C-alpha cells in the first residue's frame, strides 16, 4: 500500500490540487498535479465516483491505483499534490493496462511541469 505519510486526507489538499493544479486526462484516468513550496513528501489522493460502479468495484479500483502509485511515488517531486480520478473504464481494465495508462499520464504531466504552456519538442 501507499505509505501513510504520502496519503492525501484533507479536503483542502484535494481542492488545491484540482482547482490550482495542472490536469492531464484520458478516457480512463484524470490526474491533477500541483507543486507546493515545501519539503514534505508528495501526497497522493484518489477519487472514484459512483459512475465507476458499486462500492465493491470502486474500492477495488482504489486499491489497484494505490498499489500502482506506491511504485511510482519516487518520481513525484517533494511537496507535490497528486489527485488520481478514475473514470468508468477503469473498472473493467486489466491491471497491466491500467498501469500503462497511469504511466503515460504521469509522464505527460511531469514532462509539462517544467515547460509551462510551450511545447517541449518544437523549435523556438
Automatic annotation (TrEMBL):
UniProt xrefs under PROSITE patterns: RIBONUCLEASE_P (PS00648)
What is one cellular component GO term in this UniProt entry?
A: ribonuclease P complex
Give the highest taxon in the source lineage.
Bacteria
One GO molecular-function entry: ribonuclease P activity
Is Cell inner membrane one of the keywords UniProt gives this record? Answer: no
Enzyme Commission no: 3.1.26.5
Q: Does the keyword RNA-binding apply?
A: yes
The record ties this protein, via InterPro entries, to: Ribosomal_Su5_D2-typ_SF (IPR020568), Ribsml_uS5_D2-typ_fold_subgr (IPR014721), RNase_P (IPR000100), RNase_P_CS (IPR020539)
Catalysis performed (reactions): Endonucleolytic cleavage of RNA, removing 5'-extranucleotides from tRNA precursor
| Gene Ontology process terms (BP) | tRNA 5'-leader removal
Please provide the record's keywords in A-Z order.
Endonuclease, Hydrolase, Nuclease, RNA-binding, tRNA processing
Q: One Pfam family name from the record?
A: Ribonuclease_P
Under NCBIfam families, the record lists: rnpA (TIGR00188)
Q: Assembly and interactions?
A: Consists of a catalytic RNA component (M1 or rnpB) and a protein subunit.
Tell me the function of this protein.
Answer: RNaseP catalyzes the removal of the 5'-leader sequence from pre-tRNA to produce the mature 5'-terminus. It can also cleave other RNA substrates such as 4.5S RNA. The protein component plays an auxiliary but essential role in vivo by binding to the 5'-leader sequence and broadening the substrate specificity of the ribozyme.
Family, according to the entry, reads as follows: Belongs to the RnpA family.
Query: What is this protein identified as?
Result: Ribonuclease P protein component
Q: Which organism is it from?
A: Thermobispora bispora (strain ATCC 19993 / DSM 43833 / CBS 139.67 / JCM 10125 / KCTC 9307 / NBRC 14880 / R51)
Please state the gene responsible for encoding this protein: rnpA
Amino acid at each position: 500500500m501507499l505509505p501513510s505519510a504520502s496519503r492525501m486526507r484533507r479536503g483542502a489538499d484535494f481542492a488545491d490540487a484540482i482547482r490550482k493544479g495542472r490536469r492531464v486526462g484520458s478516457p480512463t484516468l484524470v490526474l491533477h498535479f500541483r507543486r507546493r513550496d515545501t519539503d514534505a513528501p508528495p501526497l497522493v489522493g484518489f477519487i472514484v465516483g459512483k459512475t465507476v460502479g458499486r462500492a465493491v468495484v470502486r474500492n477495488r479500483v482504489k486499491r489497484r491505483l494505490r498499489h500502482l502509485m506506491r511504485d511510482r511515488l519516487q518520481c513525484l517531486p517533494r511537496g507535490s499534490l497528486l489527485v488520481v480520478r478514475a473514470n468508468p473504464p477503469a473498472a473493467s481494465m486489466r491491471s497491466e493496462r491500467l498501469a500503462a495508462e497511469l504511466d503515460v499520464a504521469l509522464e505527460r504531466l511531469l514532462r509539462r511541469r517544467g515547460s509551462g504552456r510551450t511545447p517541449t519538442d518544437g523549435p523556438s
